[in-house]
Structure formats: structure tokens, C-alpha cells
Amino acid sequence: MNNFDGLLEKIAQCSMKKLAVAVAQDDAVIEAVRAAKDRKIADAILVGDADKIKEVAASINTDISDFEIVDVKDNTEAALTAVKLVHDGKADMYMKGLIDTKGFLKSVLDKEVGLRTGKPLSHVALFEIEGYEKMMFLTDVAFIPYPTLEDKVGIINNTVEVAHACGIECPKVAPVAAVEVVNPKMPATVEAAELAKMNDEGKITGCIVDGPLSMDLAIDPEAARHKGATNRKIVGDADVIVFPDIHAGNLVYKTLVHTANVKNGCILTGTKAPVILTSRSDSFETKVNSIALAAIVAEELSK
Amino acid sequence: MNNFDGLLEKIAQCSMKKLAVAVAQDDAVIEAVRAAKDRKIADAILVGDADKIKEVAASINTDISDFEIVDVKDNTEAALTAVKLVHDGKADMYMKGLIDTKGFLKSVLDKEVGLRTGKPLSHVALFEIEGYEKMMFLTDVAFIPYPTLEDKVGIINNTVEVAHACGIECPKVAPVAAVEVVNPKMPATVEAAELAKMNDEGKITGCIVDGPLSMDLAIDPEAARHKGATNRKIVGDADVIVFPDIHAGNLVYKTLVHTANVKNGCILTGTKAPVILTSRSDSFETKVNSIALAAIVAEELSK
């Protein structure tokens, strides 16, 4: 599978998964869940102020009569109610509506009804990029600001699970940096080499890790050939890009979105069930793609 | 001027500038200086092993009979001879040939015949990006690993000079980060705000600095509108992107080169004359564009 159409085909073969939306009175979110249901990606339970949810749907001429609505006026309560639906197995994915990120994450991490697993939480963005043959996972571009080596192990483990769910049996994981050689003055390169070593030693499994890699060696086979990088495990064919920190990750992520021809979707991982935390600036298609990515991961977790 | 064609038109109106090439026996460099001369961007003096220079030129069927060749067999000596030509005003720009970066930079920084100014050296990459209306300067993506606040001031000053040379009277400078708000836990955002303040106070001049900015606010007018960023000085119309560190800068740079539709060229700045330090993995067009960028800057310095 090397594009979002492939992802949708795979989803079509599974039983339809269900989203629980926290504080669902948000026009962009209602639009996205409507499209997700129409495209048979996922159904949704809308938790929030029922009157406002109907009002917002009417204001954008969207029929939501076929969605289950759970009426909870208070936002904090609505989030806890929605996340509990996922916690209890009544829904398969959890999605943020008109609630601030902090309050939403508090519900995700709630000790009683939340989705904690003990694993670190991390964010993964899946990209289909015109001119790149594979789907590309970028991580972490939005959640962990300055990941430690241990965090990066968690990030890789979380992302490899998502890649497996997407049908990539042994993803190639590239911890990237400005240069492809270890430079003791650049901690990102030292940690990248350490991650590759942990992979060699069987401490990181289910994938191939090669680092440090510069971006061209990671994603451009021709550049890799040109640089004579024949002894590397990744030669321009990376599936997963692991960034040194959130600045590098987020700046690359947004550069791709705003300059290249791409499709993308994002989820939060390391949780019991996939969590969708799109921002208002994400496009409609990105929101729908995020639901699709979550559905694929939910299917894998249900096995 | 918003593309490389505009740059070339501007160059056509100036007197032809001259490159001094250090250790010129390099096929890719000879190809680039040949094209630069044919396109009337710049002439060149080839310093290095004359026999080898002629041999390499012959091996790629390139006529170099109209270039001045200075025969110096030893690489270190050749670099010092070439840089002295620039130092003495016999050439206008200095270019790296078949010599390692370290040895080349040593000649740039040579106290007697080098190109020191007392200003910090920094790297700037100029991009023409399909879909972005302006030329975009990225800095520093290749030279200063972890710039301090003081370094960033130097980087901005160097880059603003280059932007002025390119005809951009008051460039909009965006120190970018993962987020567009100051977060005390993210030093890059604190420094970005500090740079904007220094600009307000007249300590950084000739430009408008606004930061911290996320990449979408810096380069996407629609995203800036969508986020309601109307009170910012930069709303998706940045000319200069200043990166938190070399990882962020280099990863964005290579992502652009390998996924978007771009033209680009790079020079080293902060020197008496522009320095061209392309790498073997740079494309032929990038090398020629780098010479063009250097020529524009050399013209400005000659005034």
C-alpha cells in the first residue's frame, strides 16, 4: 500500500469502526465525520451539547440524523464521556472537537476512563508525496518537544505499530539530522547511531533502523546512489522519518504541506486506541485522512 | 525580482564578474563555470594543477581555452593563490573546487590573503518555489550548527545584505519554530521574539523581523488568514526564514529540494566577497544558480 487510496481500499474490507467525538459542536469536525461516514471510513458518536451540535450541523447544511448524539453540556464532562466510550470498547477511536488541546489530552490521560497504556504518547503524520514511491511517516512533529533517546525508542515503537497496521511489514526507520555521519558535537547524530545500534542488538524490533541520515539519503534514492551510500540499510527508501526535535519535525511537516503536492493524515499513538487531534488549520481532506489512518490502526488493535 | 530568471536579467545589466576557483580540477565545477560563462553570469580563473584541469575538461568534452588558468599543483597553495586573487580584487567571488571543505574554509579565513571581515560567516540558500510568489532565503542550513542569539543577529544581518543585493528593499525575516507563540520551555521561540524586539528597537535594521512564526504563518498567506494572524508583521509573505538550528534548517532545505518543484542556489556570507561552497550532491543547475547569486552580491559590494 503506497497511497491513501490503498488505505481506503483496505478499510473497505474491514468492519466499520466508530469514532467518539469530544465536544462535537464544531463545523469542521462535523463536516469531516460526515465525509468519513459517507466514504465508509468510520461511523461516529457525537458527544457534546446536543442543541449546539444540531445547530452547527444545520448552519453548514449537513445532515447528521444518522449519527448517535450523546447530550453532555459541560465540555470537561463531554470529553470524559466520549473517552469512556472508547475505554469501554463502545467506540474504537477518540477525536477532538471544540475543546482546547490541554483539556482534551487530560481526558486521554484520565486514570479511570482514559486511554493510557504506560507507553509514551507520540504523534505520527502519514504522508503521500507526489514523486515519492512510498507512504512516509513523520514523527514526532507535534507532541514531544525535545525527545530523549528513551523517548525516541518509544516514538519508533509507536510508529512501527502504525506502519505494520498500514501493511508495511518491516518499515525502514531513518533518524535524520543535518549530516549522515556521527558528530560528537551534534547529539542528534549520536542518538541516531545509538538507535541503529539498538535495532542491530534486537532492542528495537519489527523494523530496520539506520541513522544518522541526512534527508536526501533518507528519501532520495538517486542522491543516495550519488553519494555512494551503498553500505547503508536505507538508501533513499525510508518509510519512517524520526526527527531530532519538534522544531525540525514541525518545520519539515509544514514545508511539505505548503510547498509539495501531498495528502496527509495524523494521529496520536501510544494510547489504547488511536486518537485524532487535528487542528483548525488542517484541511478538510487532512481531517478525513486522519480518521482513515485511525481506522486502520483501530482495525489492527481489534485483531 | 521573484525568480532566478529575474536574477539573471539583473546580472545581464552589470559588468561581468569573475570567479576564482580553488583546485579547479573537478568535472562538476568545470561544467558549472563553463555554463556560467556561456550564460554571461560570470567569468572564472581556474587555479590548480593545470594539466589535470585540462585533462578533466577534455574528459567531459568541455572547451576551457577561453579561461585563465593559474598552475599551482599543491592544493593548499592553490586555494591560497585563488583566495588571494579575490582578496586583491583581481576576482570578485571565490569558489570551492576539488578540495575538502575544511581546507577550503581555512583559505577563506586566512589572516593575510583570506576574506575575513570580522563578521560571523553564515550560509544562505536562495529558493524559487513553485506556488510561492517570492524568492525565499533559508538560513542557516549548512554552516552554523547551533546559532546563539548573537549568531542569529549576524545571520540576519548577512542575509539581509544578500536580499538587498537581490533587489528586496525591506525583506521580511521570519525566525521560525514549531509554534508561533513564545513558550519559555522552547528557547527557539524566546530567541525569535527577542530578535523581533531588537528589530523594533532599531538594533537589527534594513528589514522587518517577526517571530516566533510557525512555517505556515511564515509562508502561507491563506493559513495566516485562517489562523486570524492579522496583527502580525508577516502573514505568509516571509522573504527570509531563520532556523532554530542546523538540523531544522538542513532537513527543510533538503525536503524542499527533493519533494517540491524548486530552483535554488547557495553562498557563504559574512566574507569580503561571496563564497561558493556547493557540494557534489548539488545539481548542475544549483551550482550555476549559486554562481548567479554570488555575482549579484559581488555587484552590490562593488558599488
Mean pLDDT value of chain A: 96
Number of β-strand runs of chain A? 11
Low-confidence stretches of chain A: none
- Overall morphology of chain A: elongated
| Total helical segments of chain A | 11
Task: Please give a structural write-up.
The structure is a homodimer. The first copy, chain A, has helices at about 5-10, 25-40, 50-60, 75-85, 100-110, 150-165, 185-200, 215-220, 220-225, 245-260, 285-300, and strands at about 15-20, 40-50, 70, 95, 120-130, 135-140, 170-175, 210, 240, 260-270, 275. With about 300 residues, chain A is α/β, with parallel strands linked by helices. In chain A, the strands form two sheets. A six-stranded mixed β-sheet of chain A has the order 8-7-9-6-5-10, with helices on both faces. In chain A, helix 6 packs across helix 11. The two termini of chain A are about 20 Å apart.
TL;DR?
Two copies of one chain form a homodimer. Chain A has eleven helices and eleven strands.
Compile the SSE list and pairings.
Two copies of one chain form a homodimer.
Chain A: H1 4-12, E1 17-22, H2 27-38, E2 42-48, H3 50-59, E3 68-71, H4 75-87, E4 93-96, H5 101-108, E5 122-129, E6 135-139, H6 149-165, E7 172-175, H7 187-200, E8 208-209, H8 215-219, H9 221-226, E9 240-242, H10 246-259, E10 262-269, E11 275-276, H11 284-301
Parallel strand pairs in A: 1-2, 1-4, 2-3, 4-11, 6-9, 7-8, 7-9
Antiparallel strand pairs in A: 5-6, 5-10
